[in-house]
Amino acid sequence: MSVLKTSMRNFLAHKGRMALSAVAVLLSVAFVCGTLVFTDTMNTTFDKLFAATASDVTVSPRSATDDGAPSATGKPEALPAALVERIAKVPGVRGAEGAVGSTSVTVVNAKNENMGSTTGAPTIAGNWTDNDLKAMEITSGRAPRGPTEMMVDADTADKHHLAIGDELRTIAVTGDFTAKITGIATFKVTNPGAAVVYFDTATAQKQLLGATGQFTQINVTAANGVSDARLKQDVAAALGSGPYKLQTAQEAKDAGRDSVGSFLDVMKYAMLGFAGIAFLVGIFLIINTFSMLVAQRTREIGLMRAIGSSRKQVNRSVLVEALLLGVFGSVLGVGAGIGIAVVLMKLMGAIGMDLSTDDLTVRWTTPVVGLALGVVVTIVAAYVPARRAGKISPMAALRDAGTPADGRAGAVRATIGLLLTALGTAALFGAANSSQASAGSALLGLGVVLTLIGFVVIGPLLAGVVVRAISAVVLRMFGPVGRMAERNALRNPRRTGATGAALMIGLALVACLSVVGASMVASATDELDRSVGADFIVSSNAQQPIVPQAADAVRKAPGLAHVTNYTSLDVRLTTPDGKSVNDRIAVTDPTYQQDVRRKTVAGDLAAAYGKGAMSVGDTYAKEHGVKVGDLVSVDFKGGSTAKLKVAAITSDDTNIDKGAMYVAVTTVAQYVPAEKMPKNTNMFAKAEDGKAQEAYAALKKSLAAYPQYTVRDQTDFKKDLKDQVGQLLNIVYGLLALAIIVAVLGVVNTLALSVVERTREIGLMRAIGLSRRQLRRMIRLESVVIALFGALLGLGLGMGWGATAHKLLALEGMGVLEIPWPTIGTVFVASAFVGLFAALIPAFRAGRMNVLNAIATD
After folding, report:
1. What's the rounded Cα separation, in Å, for the pair 591 and 595?
2. How far from chain centre, in Å, is Cα 382?
3. Distance between CA atoms of 546 and 709, rounded to whole angstroms?
4. pLDDT tens digits, residue range 16-51?
5. Does the pLDDT of residue 631 top 90, yes or no?
6. Tell me: the pLDDT tens digits for 303-312?
7. What pLDDT, on a 0 to 100 scale, did the predictor assign at position 404?
8. How far apart are the C-alpha atoms of 484 and 780, rounded to whole Å?
9. What is the membrane topology listed in the Swiss-Prot or TrEMBL record (predicted)?
10. What does each C-alpha distance from 546 to 78, 160, 236, 322, 787 come to in angstroms?
11. What are phi and psi of 631, to 5 degrees?
């Protein structure tokens, strides 16, 4: 109990200092808990949606996907309507009804504005069925009854200000058709963002499937007392071994969860990774806090030892303080984490993905994980200062000798740090010279970890050199005040190294990702300039195929020398030696050779567009021993098998169409029925000589009625690529800001404790003439030097990581190294302002000290 009382007294005596460390724990725990609550809430939302929309047993075509992705042909796989009556007669079936559903549609208003989601959620069109009543209810108007009527979901109506009587145009592969809104249906569960429209059954079949008498799935309801599993078994027995897929409600729910689970997992673990970085930075803050508090209580610890306290008791006293800090910060962090999750849900709602707080999910594991992480990290971080406190001998402490200064320990630390840095550098060198991306990636990860730890360990050694160099450039102009700031920063290299290391981690990642992002953009731009001959590229914004009417509009645009069709098809390839592999083959027109210039290592690419011919990439050719003239068996999905002659082998030393195999549209048409032929995923066009601007304007005008497609020239393509990489980096920078905020708190805490530690010294300097303004400037300059020290190490380390990562990207065709000097320079200068900001409160408090009381301080 005496240890607890002592720890409580010390904790409360330094509550201001502890508060800053507690904030670091709070932020880290809050981010972890917020991530867990947010992703659990998203899982709950989708689980409720899938559970509400699933029938007892669902029958669908075997080839249908569970993720709802748009069909390559524009028409979903379908079943004959006769199966509905057949299934209805199965014992144990209470009811069976056919349903039509398609995500290969776009719905627009009179202004050609897309009514779909802006977050990537699909637009779903189908017929209104009894099964839909489980998840939705008609809250206004009525269900559609004819070919000119439709119903929309309430969320879409609210977002786009739609009302009954408004006319919308639906763009499908079978053609465009218009209908007036006769009803609005509201979800009983949360709709994450999909736009849903309904038609009567006959219209849905005709316009979405191209023929009546077909359904995309059959919803089967079990009779009372019949389990879903038994119903599935009975229906399967009645249908026999046809091309059907049967799922119970639970299986359909699980399949739906799996379809979105990978996306949610990536988001979850990425955010947890950034929370881990914040925890790592927080460790330095906590170590510094307890190290300085132990140093300030040296005499007190000596008295405790003199009156009988053992090393273990002193050690335990410091660790109990850390436990109190960890519990306090973690409890607040758990609460803040729930708030962060709510904020994230609101942000997602602002960009079109709806999440309701009614579904807010806080599992019991979330606070347990948050508390455990916060407490364990805090105690681990405080262990070294606690152990150091226990080593203080009573006589040394009473002589005010301070904590033991072990020169041998410093030498060992420097040796270990240099060894780790050397090993890390060797790993990075190995990664840069690796011939395989997989092996190089492992070496890169090892090199990053070792060099990071190495720089942290040798931080005190580097501080003596780097701080002097920075001071020579930055502080000399401030005269004596600058020199005093330099000496203060160098007074305790271990403390300066730890404080700078906290900032170094975040900025190293910023620099690394900046180099990688800039190199990716520069490489892609260079590849576009070298390889792309097309003037214009038409692509879909929603991964939908280009519908025939839009493709015709492209072909009819004036001023075009040629238009190229481009799609891809799943195939199974069998080489002459009998080895088979599943792959995809690019199906294009011969003019694609002009649109994308591919280097040929053997044969003639033009010949690959001839009858019965194809090309392969050199990687495939090497792996399977394929040569020009060999016959490859190509089993086309949805079609028959062809024997195609390899007429060309193209180089895979590229970033565009790497590994692509080409075959002519006319060749594939001989083996794949028209209804099974995938529609264009992209289209390429070349302007007539001297008519690039006119053709660009005409092409945009011709596609104005189809907002789901975008026309880009090469300038647009480069800009979009740069914007996409920039947006991704901005998100990453935003997440890294958490670690940088914790690092700033560390600088504030270090300076604040340093000011207290130097109270008497400050009083003496004030007594001999140092003004308050000069004192504040000295502390601010010390903070700036520490921040620039961390920034210089971080940026240098990060650029080294980024340059190594670029070498691996070069193996994938991204061969241009680009160092974003404006970004690096901005971050370095911003670090100085971070230092100034961090010093505001400590400098203000130092300036307010009473000179006589400061001198009298023991």
Report:
1. 7
2. 33
3. 8
4. 566 767 777 888 888 889 889 988 998 888 888 888
5. yes
6. 666 666 666 7
7. 46
8. 11
9. Multi-pass membrane protein
10. 20, 24, 36, 62, 53
11. -100, 130
What is the rounded distance in angstroms from the CA atom of residue 486 to the CA atom of residue 573?
69
Q: Would you state the pLDDT for residue 9?
A: 63
CA separation for the pair 405, 396 (Å, rounded): 11
Instruction: Say if CB 93 and CB 219 are below 8 A apart.
Output: no
Q: How confident is the model at residue 854 (pLDDT cuts 50, 70, 90)?
A: low
Long-range contact set of residues 248-253: C-beta below 8 Å, sequence gap at least 24? 248/56, 248/57, 249/51, 249/54, 249/55, 249/56, 249/57, 249/58, 252/50, 252/54, 252/55, 252/58, 253/47, 253/50, 253/51, 253/54
Q: What is the spatial distance between Cα 688 and Cα 695, in angstroms, rounded to a whole number?
A: 8
- Could you identify the residue written with the tokens 């958490």? 738
Q: d(Cα 73, Cα 425) in Å, to the nearest integer?
A: 51
- pLDDT value, residue 731: 79
The segment with the largest mean pLDDT, out of 391-395, 575-579, 740-744, is 575-579
Output the pTM of the full model: 0.82
Q: Which residue has the tokens 């001023």?
A: 559
- Quote the percentage of the chain above a pLDDT of 70: 90
Q: Which is nearest to 810 in space by CA: 648, 596, 658, 585?
A: 658
Q: Which ranges constitute the DSSP H helices of 297-364?
A: 298-306, 311-350
Structure tokens at 829: 């200068």
DSSP for 146-194, written as a single string: STTEEEEEHHHHHHHT--TT-EEEEEETTEEEEEEEEEEEEESS---S-
* Rounded (10°) angle between helices 15-53 and 2-13: 90
Tokens, residue 667: 């060749």
Q: Identify the residue with better confidence: 735 or 575.
A: 575
Q: Compute, in degrees rounded to 10, the torsion defined by CA atoms 794, 445, 373, 29.
A: 50
Phi-psi region of 760 (alpha: psi -120 to 50; beta: other; left: phi over 0): alpha
pLDDT over 90 at 480, yes or no? no
Instruction: Give the number of other Cβ atoms within 10 Å of residue 544's Cβ.
Output: 25
- Asked whether 851 and 527 are in contact (CB, 8 A), the reply is no
Confidence of residue 853 (pLDDT cuts 50, 70, 90): low
Q: How many Å is the maximal CA-CA distance in the chain?
A: 103
The pLDDT mean for the chain works out to 85
Domain ranges within the chain, ordered by starting residue: 1-55+257-405, 63-242, 458-533+714-858, 545-707
What pLDDT shows up at residue 396?
55
Q: Nearest CA to 779 among 495, 496, 488, 490?
A: 488
In the prediction, which pLDDT does 276 show?
81
